[in-house]
Amino acid sequence: MTDTKILVVDDDAVVRSSLTFLLKRAGYLPVTVDGPKDALRLVREEEFRLVLMDMNFTLTTTGEEGIHLLRQVKVLRPDLPVILMTAWGSISLAVQGMQAGAFDFITKPWNNLVLLKAIRNALDLYAPAEPAASESDAGRAHPCFDKIIGKSPALLSLLDTVARIAPTTASVLITGESGTGKELIAEAVHTHSRRAKEPFVKVNLGGLSQSLFESEMFGHKKGAFTDAYMDRTGRFEMADKGTIFLDEIGDLELSSQVKLLRVLQDQTFEVLGDSRPRKVDVRVVSATNRDLSAMVREHTFREDLLYRINLITVHLPALRERREDIPLLVRHFAQKLAETNGLPPVEFTSEAFTYLQQLPFPGNIRELKNLVERTLLVSGRQRIDASDFEQFGMPQSSLSASTSLEGLTLEELERKSILQALDKYEHNLSRTAEALGISRAALYRRLEKYGIKVCD
């Protein structure tokens, strides 16, 4: 690592000295300059693996100098990662820098461990990529991910990315519709990371109210508030040295987003009832089925938090975008069901697979799993045909009526599927959501999206 050259750009001599000492102790080769002119000259003349730069180089605090230098560096070396340094109160400047192409940002005064982690992430992620792994003949999507089923190009491409980023400590944002398997991807990131032997802690932020957020995430001391009868360990402390999975992060209230941003930024938190700051070393993996960029524009999600959690974004394709994986998934679910319940093996006709591949599946893999298991258990047959899914599954357009779906958009197919399920279950939202393979909250969002009014 001694040949890993890092360019430090800061007009403060004390900062340059501190960073030089820190980087040398970590095994890097720092080169320091005090302003943009020398920085650009060195970027042109020498090979650096990373640039660590301040946002201001004169008495001004607008950050315009830093943004301008960043853009010049990215023109000269598009593949050179840049980490920005700014004061906490100027995080908005760092967000502008991220929009201009910066890899990450660090607040001053920096935490040495947080800074070194950001540097390692940049160096790992910008390292030459490993050769892509070949497909598995057993129906697995990737030889390293034995829990994930499928061999479609979209899924294989995604898992190649996961395999490359997993060994780093970079924050990961997993996006995709409900039921696509975001939690499985989060587990795969952890399992194939250097933290695999440490805790993997899951938190459903959609189910956390503002009043419970701090206690659940950071813990509390006995007597900190009414009903605090004993000490409680928070999720971040439980995940120390491991990975914390923040599911449904798009449902987190704004006031809680601020508190989450602070711990993600500084890797420190305070237990309720104890003013002593505690340090934590966690990797953050988040997931959402919502459009966070749109929420930022609507001022319902903080832009600085978005940039903190999505250093790497992984998008899971919907099941309708990987229909070739449906036969593999169906056989997998049938095999697991048979093993769990002591049932004989089940066969599926080609017509059954054709039928399933024509359905919209708004609930994605979760809906497919429910449909397969329900059909197998209710029918009791060892050879399943399309008619069995029509008879015992949730209401869908039959093969004979499939031509009526031609010309419909994916949204129209989804709306049609929801209306059919509502009709079958007499507008019982809990049963409808279960049949569709989505959560009740996700069903509510779709009802609002399509303007469907029901009485529960």
TrEMBL record:
Report which residue ranges the record marks as coiled coil: none
Among SUPFAM superfamilies, the record links this protein to: CheY-like, Homeodomain-like, P-loop containing nucleoside triphosphate hydrolases
Q: Which residues carry this modification: 4-aspartylphosphate?
A: D54
User: One Pfam match, by short name?
Assistant: AAA_lid_14
Return the InterPro entries for the record.
AAA+_ATPase, AAA_lid_NorR, CheY-like_superfamily, Homeodomain-like_sf, HTH_Fis, P-loop_NTPase, Sig_transdc_resp-reg_receiver, Sigma_54_int
Name the PROSITE patterns on file.
RESPONSE_REGULATORY, SIGMA54_INTERACT_1, SIGMA54_INTERACT_2, SIGMA54_INTERACT_3, SIGMA54_INTERACT_4
Which parts of the sequence belong to the Response regulatory domain? 5-123
Alphabetical list of PANTHER family matching this protein: C4-DICARBOXYLATE TRANSPORT TRANSCRIPTIONAL REGULATORY PROTEIN DCTD (PTHR32071:SF57), TRANSCRIPTIONAL REGULATORY PROTEIN (PTHR32071)
Q: What is this protein called?
A: Sigma-54 dependent transcriptional regulator
Organism expressing this protein natively:
Parabacteroides faecalis
